[in-house]
Design a protein that fits this description.
Elements: E1 7-8, H1 9-15, H2 21-29, E2 33-35, E3 38-39, E4 45-46, E5 53-55, E6 58-59, E7 69-74, E8 105-106, E9 115-121, H3 124-131, E10 139-150, H4 154-159, E11 161-163, E12 166-168, E13 172-175, E14 183-191, H5 198-205, E15 210-218, E16 221-222, E17 231-233, H6 236-242
Parallel strand pairs: 9-15
Antiparallel strand pairs: 1-4, 2-3, 2-5, 5-6, 7-9, 7-17, 8-9, 10-14, 10-15, 11-12, 13-14, 15-16
Helix pairs in contact: 1-2
Length: 249
C-alpha cells in the first residue's frame, strides 16, 4: 500500500504552481522530469517531503500559496504561454503588475487568433477540474464564419467529423440571433471538452472558414460587459459559477 504522503508526480508539479496536471503529464512524457536523478514515468508517485523532483534540472518544491483565480478577456494576438521565445505578447502581459510575482498558468487555452474568456490560476487541482472532459464543464463560443452556414448542416457539427483519427464535435450548435434563418454566418456553440483548435478544425473539415472565434462563458460565468484585455480576480461565488451546469444544455 502506498504511503499516504505519496502523490502522482504531475500533481506535485500542479501543486507547486508550475502548470496544470495535463501539461505536467506532457513534461513527464517528454522526459523533462526526474525523481531522485532518474527520469520520471507517467503514474510514478513521490513523497514531496523527501523526493528530489526536478523539471529540466530545477528542483520543484511545493509551497502553499493563496489560491488565485483570474478571469481575463483575451484579445486576439496574444498566446496562452508563460514563456515563448517566438512570441513577444502573452496573456500574462495583460495582467496588472501586482501579479508579476505570482506563478500563474492557463486553465485551458485559446489560440492566438481567438479571443474571450480565459481562466488563469495558481491552483493545479482547480485547473484540472476545469479542463478534464469527464467533469462536463460547459464552454460557450460565438463563431463568425466567412461563408453562410446552412441550417440543414447544423446537425453535422453535433454529430461530428473524424480528422486524422480524432473525433471533432460540439454538444450544441444554433444560429446566433434569428434561429429560424435558412443560413447564417453567426453561430453559438457549446462544448464540454476542447481539443487543440477543435472548432476551427471542425468547420475547416466541413469546408467553412472561421473569421472570428470568441469564448464568452464557462459554466454560468460570463465575461459580458468586460472590456478586451481586462481581468478580474474571482470570488468563491464566481469560481462556483464556473462549475455550474448550463441550463441550456
Amino acid at each position: 500500500m502506498d504511503s499516504p504522503q505519496l502523490i502522482r508526480t504531475q500533481k506535485l508539479l500542479a501543486d507547486a504552481g508550475i502548470c496544470s496536471r495535463r501539461v505536467a503529464e506532457e513534461y513527464i512524457k517528454n522526459g523533462e522530469v526526474t525523481i531522485n536523478g532518474k527520469t520520471a514515468e507517467l503514474g510514478s508517485k513521490v513523497d514531496p517531503a523527501i523526493d528530489d523532483v526536478r523539471l529540466n534540472g530545477r528542483r520543484i518544491k511545493v509551497v502553499k500559496h493563496k489560491q488565485l483565480v483570474i478571469a481575463l478577456n483575451k484579445p486576439k494576438g496574444f498566446i496562452c504561454s508563460n514563456d515563448d521565445p517566438h512570441n513577444d505578447r502573452t496573456v500574462f502581459d495583460l495582467l496588472p503588475t501586482d501579479y508579476n510575482r505570482e506563478r500563474l498558468f492557463c486553465a485551458g487555452r485559446l489560440d492566438k487568433d481567438s479571443e474571450g474568456l480565459l481562466i488563469l490560476t495558481n491552483d493545479g487541482d482547480l485547473a484540472n477540474r476545469l479542463m478534464h472532459p469527464s467533469n462536463l464543464v460547459t464552454k460557450r463560443y460565438h463563431v463568425s464564419l466567412k461563408q453562410p452556414f446552412p441550417k440543414a448542416k447544423i446537425f453535422r457539427l453535433m454529430r461530428g467529423v473524424t480528422v486524422e483519427g480524432e473525433k471533432l464535435k460540439v454538444e450544441k450548435a444554433v444560429f446566433a440571433g434569428d434561429k429560424n434563418k435558412a443560413e447564417s454566418t453567426e453561430l453559438d456553440l457549446a462544448m464540454h471538452h476542447g481539443k487543440k483548435r477543435e472548432i476551427r478544425r471542425l468547420f475547416q473539415a466541413l469546408h467553412y472558414d472561421v473569421k472570428k472565434l470568441k469564448r464568452y462563458q464557462i459554466g454560468r460565468y460570463s465575461i459580458k460587459g468586460m472590456p478586451k484585455g481586462a481581468s478580474i480576480g474571482l470570488s468563491p461565488r464566481d469560481i462556483s459559477l464556473l462549475f455550474k451546469a448550463d441550463s441550456d444544455l
